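pinning this so it doesn't scroll away 📌
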Amino acid sequence: MSASLGRRAVAELVGTAALVAVVVGSGIQATELSRDVGVQLLANSLATVFGLAVLITLFGPVSGAHFNPAVTLAAWFTGRKSGDGMTAREAAVYVPAQTLGAIGGAVLADAMFAEPLVKWSTHDRSAGHLWLGEIVATAGLVLLVFGLTGTDRAHLASAAVASYIGAAYWFTSSTSFANPAVTVGRAFTDTFAGIAPASVAPFIAAQLVGAAVGLGLVAVVFGRPAPAEPDAVVPHGETELAPSAP
């Protein structure tokens, strides 16, 4: 049997928490080891690339390894009429799980480095060019994910998605958050990877615009997106899992 919705939600929560712990924790470690901002960003991006690839490989067979409300909502949108893709109920479970996981991951990273468990970030990221960077980063991510699934190459997702995010750290002005849940989580830490709470809503708005642009690009480049299953990133339907305990 494939994983129940409850198990998939736990996988999304734990996976997103681990992703944010990697992003925030490596940022803290980098600032402790170097005062060079370029070196700090390099360390942060490399840790994110490796961590994301591992997490997609690990949790993909269970939940599809979205770890990202933008991807989840795009998967629901593409399948909303046919009934063959992600349902509204599944999306309504995934998104809160991802958001709670992201917050927990930030708190965990702070705890590991003896930082205040919750301290709102003072890192202001309010500027038009940063919002544009988020639109570009998220559009590219959605184009990649749904382009791979639409051409039966989802098995390449762990390497491809991680590589794209690593590159987008450097070629986008915003350092590629590209993820509403991660954006919320990073507001809870006043460290290298943080984002001020006042900057969160515009970033999320830009990410949602980027997701829409990405789906538009999928339709233009690959044809109208097919209804996306919940395994929008990594297929999980064939995986056999032990039944839940009574």
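📌 and the second one:
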Amino acid sequence: MSRFFAAPSEPLARPARRIGVLGHALREREYARRVLRALGVAPLVFTSIDELATLGDRLNLLFLADVPEAASEEAPDVLSLMGTKIVPLAQEAPAPTRHLRGRPPAAAPAFDDFYRSILLSLRTRGLACAMPTPLVWGAYSFQPMDRSVSFPGRTQRVDPVTFDLALEFFFNAERVLSIPRLRQMLNPVRGARRFWGNELIGTLTDVVDELQLHGAHGWRLVHCEPEAFRLDRVPVGETPLQA
């Protein structure tokens, strides 16, 4: 977790509330973990059925990001024992093809989708969690419930790709993120049309301009390597010429 990430407004859920996340894919597993942490829950994160087998019957709830590929044949028997404790999060995404030039036929969940789905699941099952609050880094405030971003002088709703991409940098503030890593963490369906080839760099430019990540509000997105970017914290008001 970034040291600039806002602390939950309530303490983490009590240890007796055992909530897990199972997933092979990094994106889905990490999104679910981030949402639960934002809601004041310290989840148990599993990447294989073998890990889950030792604790599955003691979990109050398991968010199934995806079934680990290596254990897909064993998964139905193990997971069936948990019954209604399982909440699926991800959808099957269609493989990218040359025909995906218009609107994709299905939309895999974005961060705000994960947030609303997990919050509803916790509430309907009576599992303790913190009240939804914005994710805050300095002057920037992200509200997952309506996919909006606030910073000095502006509050605006943004599209899912911009929201997810900006959050990826803030959650990894001051760390170098490669283009392959960014593609891995973005929505695979919404990204099928927009992120082929070198188009991601153009989209990053749009994110910088839309959220004013030029340093005036304390953060600047920099192109630090040929195939990598980093979100840096800078003195408020500093411009690129002063760096």
